Amino acid sequence: MQLRLLLIAFALFALPLGAFPLEAPEGQPLLTVTGQIEQTNEGDAAVFDRAMLEAMDPVTYETGTVWTEGVQRFTGVPLARLMQEVGAADVSIYATAINDYAVEIPAGDWSRGAPIVAFLTNDAPMSRREKGPLWIIYPFDSKPEFQTETILSRSIWQLDRIVVGR
């Protein structure tokens, strides 16, 4: 009996992140991910509330942006971690804002782990007026490659939808 339990425990720990079914959001949904994904929790979509995003090992960047004054502190889930959680194919994603502004983010960007889906600025939730509730942020001050027009255009605020692939 103990050997069976040990084997079951080993098998569970050997599963990759995202191998467990996604729980349904309990709070207000903030982000819906669809497309080429393996993990869903509402039909063919993976829907996330703030608590679900906060539970995914958030990271913090301290960086300036062209839209804010001075260095800001952004906290969020790495986009690569989010894509891993939904079992996303290694393809471009299409991020869309509340106002339907949309951008393509190639797999090379998100698989390297650079951008985060920020849900806090300076340790506080972002309102829509403050470009929230979600904002894709790169560590702009860390490398010149993150200060290009292309990367700036991918830093979509008021994010509410992601389609993986097309």
Please specify the SSE layout and strand pairing.
Layout: H1 2-14, E1 29-35, E2 46-49, H2 50-54, E3 59-63, E4 72-78, H3 79-85, E5 93-97, E6 102-105, H4 107-111, E7 116-121, E8 124-125, E9 135-137, H5 149-154, E10 159-164
Parallel strand pairs: 1-10
Antiparallel strand pairs: 1-2, 3-4, 4-7, 5-6, 5-10, 7-8, 7-9
Q: In what order do the strands lie side by side in the largest sheet?
A: 2-1-10-5-6
Give me the CATH superfamily.
Oxidoreductase, molybdopterin-binding domain
How many beta-strand runs?
A: 10
Strand and helix order: HEEHEEHEEHEEEHE
- Rounded to an integer in angstroms, the radius of gyration calculated over CA atoms is 17 Å
Helix fraction, binned, reads 10-25%
Organism: Tropicimonas omnivorans
Signal peptide: 1-19
Protein name: Oxidoreductase
Keywords: Signal
Question: Overview of this structure, please?
Answer:
By secondary structure, the chain is α+β, with helices and mostly antiparallel strands. It has helices at residues 2-14, 50-54, 79-85, 107-111, 149-154; strands at 29-35, 46-49, 59-63, 72-78, 93-97, 102-105, 116-121, 124-125, 135-137, 159-164. The protein has one domain (2-164): Alpha-Beta Complex (Sulfite Oxidase, Chain A, domain 2), CATH 3.90.420.10. It has five helices and ten strands, in the order αββαββαββαβββαβ. The strands form two sheets. A five-stranded mixed β-sheet has the order 2-1-10-5-6. Strands 3, 4, 7, 8 and 9 form a five-stranded antiparallel β-sheet that branches. 31% of the residues are buried. Residues 3-18 have low confidence and may be disordered. Keywords: Signal. Residues 1-19 form the signal peptide. This is Oxidoreductase.
